[in-house]
Amino acid sequence: MIVFRLLPVIFSILLLGAHFYRAGHLLLTGGAILALGLLCIRRPLTVRLMQGLLMAGAAEWLFTTIRLVIIRQAQGLPWLRLAVILGLVALCTLLSALVFRTNGLKAQYNLPQKEQGES
């Protein structure tokens, strides 16, 4: 089923929405939820938009990590565990953009089966 193949993307977008909600950015929270609706549109442009959103989400996690580490260091609190956890969240968000490179999702979203530069 396609939903199982998209679980990393869905989870990453929902987690990003929760992050925005906790920060009080309700417009971005709504945008994250609405972005999930893009997954219902089976076009190549949809894939590129989702991949761009996931890359931007990973960047947001990295900026948040840096900001929180600086705050915790200034307060003299431990920060390494926070950096590792949020760094892994950023990595997982970034890697979830790669699920669209699987053959099943390429066929589902009408992507070329063999992209230029691949052997």
Which features would summarize this protein structure in a list?
single chain, elongated, 119 residues, mainly alpha
Q: How would you describe this protein?
A:
The chain is mainly α and 119 residues long. Helix content is 72%, strand content 0%. It has helices spanning 2-5, 7-23, 26-37, 44-74, 80-95, 103-108.
Topology record:
Layout: H1 2-5, H2 7-23, H3 26-37, H4 44-74, H5 80-95, H6 103-108
Helix content: over 70%
Mean of the pLDDT scores? 93
- Count of DSSP helices? 6
Tally of distinct domains? 1
Distance between the termini: 28 Å
- Radius of gyration equals 16 Å
Q: What is the β-strand count?
A: 0
Shape: elongated
What percentage of the residues does DSSP assign to strands (E)?
under 5%
Model regions low in confidence, pLDDT < 50 over at least 5 residues: none
The biggest beta sheet, please?
none
Structural class: mainly alpha
| Strand and helix order | HHHHHH
Task: Write a brief caption for the model.
This protein is mainly α and 119 residues long. 72% of the residues lie in helices and 0% in strands.
